[in-house]
Amino acid sequence: MNASPWQPGADERPQDAAWRRPSPAGIEESGRATFPREPVFSEPWQAQAFAMTLSLHRQGLFTWAEWAQTLAEEITAAQAKGDADLGDTYYQHWLAALERLVAQKGASSAAELECHRQAWDRAADRTPHGQPIELRPADYQLSAHD
């Protein structure tokens, strides 16, 4: 088995390299892939949504064709509602597509996903800026104003 021709730079840890995408040129004259210095994901949740999508696909929850179709539909629907499609909302569409497929395939329900979303909102509301968000059982309890 041949090793990959790409090696991370001396100042780069292997896990950093996984967060980089090939540059437009893609390949150096030496045959090694080139990578830009900016991260592929602007927020950690985007990388997590990406990783969950790959994991669920590999587990057979959906085919890549189903994924591509669902993501395209989410993007098209957002554009029809006025999304300027400047790239800054791409992972919001990615997450919406993932949630839709998870619900359609019965891995979770739309109601369960909404329950978790509301729990995270409650936890985030009480968490001081810059601190980790911690979910508590009470975050899952519906209050009278929900």
Description:
The chain contains 5 helices and no strands. Helix 2 (44-58) runs parallel beside helix 4 (90-104) and helix 3 (64-80) crosses helix 4. With 146 residues, the protein is an all-alpha fold. The longest helix is centred in the middle third of the chain and has 17 residues, at 64-80. The N and C termini lie far apart (57 Å).
What would you say about this model in short?
With about 150 residues, this protein is mainly α. Helices cover about 45% and strands about 0% of the residues.
**Overall pLDDT level:** 79
Parts with pLDDT < 50 across at least 5 consecutive residues: 1-25
Shape: globular
Strand proportion, as a percent range, falls in under 5%
Structural class: mainly alpha
Q: Give, in order, the helices and strands.
A: HHHHH
Task: Tell me the number of helical segments per DSSP (H or I, 4 or more residues long).
Answer: 5
Supply Rg: 19 Å
Give helix % range. 40-55%
Largest sheet: none
Distance between the termini: 57 Å
Task: Tally the beta strands.
Answer: 0
Keywords:
globular; 5 helices; mainly alpha; single chain; disordered N terminus; 146 residues
What is the topological layout?
Blueprint: H1 14-17, H2 44-58, H3 64-80, H4 90-104, H5 110-126
Helix pairs in contact: 2-4, 3-4
